[in-house]
């Protein structure tokens, strides 16, 4: 299929404001924006190297941007209104697709990730937990909480259905850890500080 035909394809965008956080809205696009990710940009400076990120931060009221596959999650300033901003965000996404330029330039992103402080990494991981991870495992009554980030080590605890759960390490190592490596490759180790022996009701109770 030629580029011309790709450009002519209609692009639908569905906006969904978060019930948990009214300052967060997820924009699901009918076409892929960036394979891989997610990539989180906490401010305009961090978006350097992401043409789509730069385009979105140019809009008044945009506080942070998370780009993953065909989904863009926008956090707005509390003082800003979604009225008008949602349409502007949709226009920015469509314009980016029409340019044919990648939404994220990989080399520039990796360069901008270098040298982030433990505090900055903690913010990125907390955003990941709030927007992606805990929404998913909440279906099982579980939750992952950020304890600390020190010298490239991420300390977390697991609570609710994840505490004492036989599948908790599977959730941690094959789910959460993979996502953390994508948004914060500087994290070299994830330390589970949970007292799993205190868990009252494993999600997968052992027979007998």
Could you name the key traits of this structure?
208 residues, alpha+beta, Ribosomal Protein S8, Chain: A, domain 1, five-stranded antiparallel beta sheet, three-stranded mixed beta sheet, 36% helix, globular, disordered C terminus
Q: Give me the number of helical elements.
A: 6
- How many separate domains make up the residues? 2
CATH fold-level name of the largest domain? Ribosomal Protein S8, Chain: A, domain 1
Could you describe the largest sheet, including whether it forms a barrel?
A: 5 strands, antiparallel
Mean pLDDT score = 78
- The CATH top-level class label of the largest domain: Alpha Beta
User: What's the β-strand tally?
Assistant: 8
By CATH, the architecture of the largest domain is named 2-Layer Sandwich
Describe the protein in words.
The protein is an alpha+beta fold and 208 residues long. It folds into two domains: 3-113, Ribosomal Protein S8, Chain: A, domain 1 (2-Layer Sandwich); 118-198, Fe-S cluster assembly (FSCA) (GMP Synthetase, Chain A, domain 3, 2-Layer Sandwich), CATH 3.30.300.130. Helix content is 36%, strand content 26%. It contains six helices and eight strands. The protein has helices at 3-8, 51-57, 82-99, 106-113, 118-137, 168-183, and strands at residues 13-17, 24-29, 34-41, 62-69, 71-76, 142-150, 153-160, 189-192. The strands form two sheets. Strands 1-2-5-4-3 form a five-stranded antiparallel beta sheet, sandwiched between helices. Strand 6 and strand 7 (153-160) form a beta hairpin. Helix 2 (51-57) packs antiparallel against helix 3 (82-99) and helix 5 packs across helix 6. Residues 1-8 and 201-208 have low confidence and may be disordered.
């Amino acid at each position: 299929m030629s580029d011309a035909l790709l450009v002519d394809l209609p692009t639908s965008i569905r906006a969904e404001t978060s019930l948990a956080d009214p300052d967060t809205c997820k924009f699901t696009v009918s076409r892929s924006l960036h394979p891989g990710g997610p990539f989180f940009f906490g401010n305009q400076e961090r978006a350097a190297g992401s043409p789509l990120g730069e385009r979105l931060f140019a809009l008044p009221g945009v506080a942070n941007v998370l780009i993953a596959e065909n989904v863009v999650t926008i956090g707005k300033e509390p003082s800003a209104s979604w009225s008008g901003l949602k349409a502007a965000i949709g226009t920015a996404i469509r314009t980016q697709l029409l340019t044919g330029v990648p939404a994220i330039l990989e080399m520039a992103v990796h360069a901008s990730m270098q040298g982030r402080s433990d505090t900055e990494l903690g913010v990125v991981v907390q955003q990941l937990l709030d927007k992606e991870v805990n929404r998913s495992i909440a279906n099982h009554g579980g939750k992952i909480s950020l304890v600390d980030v020190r010298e490239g080590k991420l300390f977390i605890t697991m609570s609710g259905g994840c505490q004492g759960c036989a599948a908790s390490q599977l959730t941690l190592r094959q789910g959460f850890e993979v996502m953390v490596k994508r948004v914060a490759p500087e994290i070299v180790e994830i330390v589970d500080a949970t007292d799993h022996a205190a868990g009252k009701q494993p999600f997968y109770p052992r027979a007998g």
